[in-house]
Amino acid sequence: MSALPLIAVVGLTFEEAIIAAPGIVVVRGGDGSRLDAALEAALANGARGLISFGIAGGLAPHAPCGTVAVATEVVHGEERYTCDPDWTLALLKKLPDALDGVFAGVSAPVTTPEAKAALHQATGAITVDMESHKVARAAAKHGLPFAALRAISDPAERALPPSALVGMTPEGQTNAGAVMRSLARRPQDLPGLIRAGLDVKTATAALLRSRESLGPLLGLLLD
């Protein structure tokens, strides 16, 4: 078996805690501004494959909160990346209830049902996140297998209130103080913020179940 690690890219601290394990190097993207450089630094030591892992926004109307999705392709503007077919098939075999399809990559959160519907119509994507396209691009550059697995936290019909977005730091951590200050200015955000918190809890439970099913190297076939 290759001694090279698997590189897993996440956006948030709690996602890192779920996926971290021996043989896996975790790169946290946070707001994405430093992800490209962090990925290149991790790849300098070699890798056997890259996977994008965590929660995502839902774009497909038939994908409720907590749906686990496995990418077949990742699209970002005019860019289109095909996921490693063997690895993708292995993930789907281990997660028979998972939804497979296109993932959309974006540089800023997609927060309203209208914007999600437009992105779904334009791309055919079932989920959206801010890391997968960067991971796919790096994998293509270095000739490495790539996969993506996400659990839907905010489904297509759900809007994310502004107070939910200010709570994320560039490092992918939660800033409770920023959330409280935002709520003081926008108390109307409270119901949506509570709903978003419950949705993240549901998606996190789905990620944990998936992680337990995938084994040490997340379905990546051994040499």
| Helix percent band | 25-40%
What is the CA-CA span between the terminal residues?
A: 5 Å
Which overall shape is indicated by the principal axes computed on the Cα atoms?
A: globular
**Cross-sheet strand order for the largest sheet:** 3-7-6-4-8
Could you name the CATH topology? Rossmann fold
| CATH top level label | Alpha Beta
Number of helices: 8
Whole-number radius of gyration? 17 Å
Number of domains: 1
Q: Give the full name of the CATH homologous superfamily.
A: Nucleoside phosphorylase domain
Order of helices and strands: EHEHEEEHEHEHEHHH
* Overall number of strands: 8
Mean pLDDT: 91
**Low-pLDDT runs:** none
Structural class: alpha/beta
Descriptive notes:
With 223 residues, the protein is α/β, with parallel strands linked by helices. It contains 8 helices and 8 strands. A 5-stranded mixed barrel has the order 3-7-6-4-8, surrounded by 5 helices. α1 runs parallel beside α8 and α2 runs parallel beside α5. GO terms for molecular function: adenosylhomocysteine nucleosidase activity; methylthioadenosine nucleosidase activity. One of its GO terms (cellular component) is cytosol. This is Nucleoside phosphorylase domain-containing protein. One of its GO terms (biological process) is nucleoside metabolic process.
Topology:
Blueprint: E1 6-10, H1 13-19, E2 24-28, H2 35-43, E3 49-58, E4 68-76, E5 79-82, H3 85-94, E6 99-105, H4 113-123, E7 127-129, H5 132-142, E8 146-154, H6 162-165, H7 176-185, H8 190-214
Parallel strand pairs: 1-2, 1-3, 3-8, 4-6, 6-7
Antiparallel strand pairs: 3-7, 4-5, 4-8
Helix pairs in contact: 1-8, 2-5
